[in-house]
């Protein structure tokens, strides 16, 4: 009896804490900073540079949201989270949003009670082999030894792929990406498999990147995107449409360089609505009319962010591929601003 | 007579032969080699094998170390300079030196503050560690925690002053009341300290930290080896007195105290440290409203201190159990009360026996501070695994960085163990 009273009290305390955190948008505005969960360090996606300034593809999403809501892209408190602490940090309200290359899956969306607001990077599991092996397709990998991180979805994807293609392989279990890199270079395995973006980033650090090739097969879907807590749809809308604004800006040719000019005189009504010269889209979100303009001028549109952090000009060297605009045959697609 | 002899014997030596050097093989390095390295065939074989292994290790590592590059700005550039030759890229250490030591968020113009705090730490620790030094130095040790807090975190000087005033008031009240009864002194001291802290909290004006002499630095900006040192020093210092109290409590004849101590020790010892850290970083956030969460550094200090004090309590209990019963009876027969008996007779002996165990735990605890990297704090290992290896310039440098971290840890841990051996020799009053 007594125990249940204590548990009940705890539950009530938990519920009231949850209720107090309901209006995230108001909380962020009152606080003056956005608490954004990022990775503790992932090349190209989120890492502090030599001056301690956070840079990267996921970081840019945080900065765009901060620019849209607070008018200042540097008003972000970056909270580094590990793969193990990220979801509890979001659920407990320690962070307002999580932008940490997190795969959108059914159970995370439904069971863990989060809302994925969109996809900012379509990833998938790929294979890397030494050129000397002379393999051009993953289906030729019969009997190969494969370095694979244990306890991840990549392990399960790999088993599925080899079983459906009726070929055999020998797994070499390893713990971390760093260890995998060493093992692969030391020749402990013929193939290294993980997310394709990770493979490209890993290959870029090799002494002779040209001696290794990424195979064309992508064997899993890993849509990565920012997420917020369930049950605060106003805040979810702000993050979702900030991301969509960056995507739409690229589609419409609005860049950080010409955003001011475009907002002053444009013939395109959608650009006018996006940049707040026409309509009241900002007001509907609970923001002012210039919100999208600020988000775009902070770090540039989606294409600019991609090119600056992980594009082909950077050491990471990722091609747009699936992440091209839908008009260029990719999957990046934003609902209309209307 | 003598003449006959003189003729019958061809030669008689009349002076002593000058002493000649010992045979070549029985002296100097040759003798040492023969006795120590090549005494038996099996010995010789082992010597040769060992030499071969040493040669293998050195010929592998020495070119790598000696050929190291110290002044490039990225891994690619370093490899270009090496041009295929074997060599280490130590330039990651020179380029990221401050990040490794202070983390990436601590303002660079303020690095002198933690450095000064570290320097003062040696001054403050000296009278505690070396009791031949004048006892007056202990006064500085008493104020050091507050100075160090002020130097590292900055902000208004009123905070450490109020904290110190609270502790001082508690100590004074304790001194006054303890003559009556230990419990009076103990609780009176705690109440006095809390009164001072509460009143002081009202006095400190809001926003005093913004205009303070030293810029305030929030806890989440701490990082690098500084964080390991801070956690290690704070937790060891706090956990030894708590451990002593727990060990004595476990032996207490008062059932309530005994049960509380036993449950605490057994519970904390039965849980892995990493679990406690996860509770500190993740679970506690659920119990606080989002805006008023306890500082993460403080949460981690509390958890690590709890963990190590439980272990230290068990070590000290071992020391207490090793004392002959006669010591306790001798104290009683002298008419000493419990605190006096403990302070004057039992603990000095029990602690002396416990030194190796306590040092063992201190060294282990210091290394365990790297576990905080798992909960997203940027200690030295967190810095290496996170920001540095994730930067596009240095992705792929492992040996140099982790080697550097192990050198730092080795220096500190070896220092601790050497000190403890000196202490044991110094305190050796028995006749072994």
Concise overview:
The complex is a heterodimer of chains A (338) and B (432). Chain A has 338 residues and is an alpha/beta fold. Chain A has 14 helices and 14 strands.
Largest interface, with Cβ-Cβ < 8 Å? A-B, 43 and 38 residues
| Biggest β-sheet strands, sense, barrel of chain B | none
Envelope shape of chain A: globular
How would you classify the helix and strand content of chain B by structural class? mainly alpha
Low-confidence stretches of chain A: 1-21
- The number of E-state strands of chain A comes to 14
Number of helices of chain B: 18
The CA-CA distance between the termini of chain B, in Å, is 65 Å
Elements of chain A, N to C (H/E): HHEEEHEHEHEEEEHEHEHEEEHHHHHH
Q: Strand order, main sheet of chain A: write it out.
A: 10-9-11-8-12
Radius of gyration of chain B equals: 31 Å
How is the biggest beta sheet of chain A arranged?
5 strands, mixed
Mean pLDDT of chain B: 87
The overall strand count of chain B is 0
Order of helices and strands of chain B: HHHHHHHHHHHHHHHHHH
Q: What is the arithmetic mean of pLDDT of chain A?
A: 86
Assembly context of the chains:
heterodimer
Q: Spans of chain B with pLDDT under 50 lasting ≥5 residues?
A: none
Describe the structure.
The complex is a heterodimer of chains A (338) and B (432). In chain A, the strands form 5 sheets. In chain A, strands 10-9-11-8-12 form a 5-stranded mixed beta sheet. In chain A, strands 4-1-5 form a 3-stranded parallel beta sheet. In chain A, strands 2-3 form a two-stranded antiparallel ribbon. In chain A, helix 3 runs antiparallel to helix 13. Chain A has helices spanning 2-20, 24-31, 57-70, 86-91, 106-110, 153-164, 177-185, 196-204, 233-252, 259-264, 269-275, 281-285, 291-299, 302-309; strands spanning 34-39, 47-48, 54-55, 76-81, 97-98, 114-116, 121-123, 125-130, 144-149, 169-174, 191-195, 212-214, 222-224, 227-229. Chain A is 41% helix and 17% strand. Chain A is globular, with a radius of gyration of 22 Å. By secondary structure, chain B is an all-alpha fold. Chain B is globular, with a radius of gyration of 31 Å. In chain B, 30% of the residues are buried. The A-B interface holds A 13-14, 17, 20-21, 27, 31, 39-44, 46-50, 52, 79-82, 84-85, 88-89, 91-94, 178, 181-182, 201-202, 204-207, 314-316 and B 75-76, 79, 95-96, 99, 104-105, 278, 281-283, 285-291, 293, 373-376, 378, 382, 385-393, 395-396, 398.
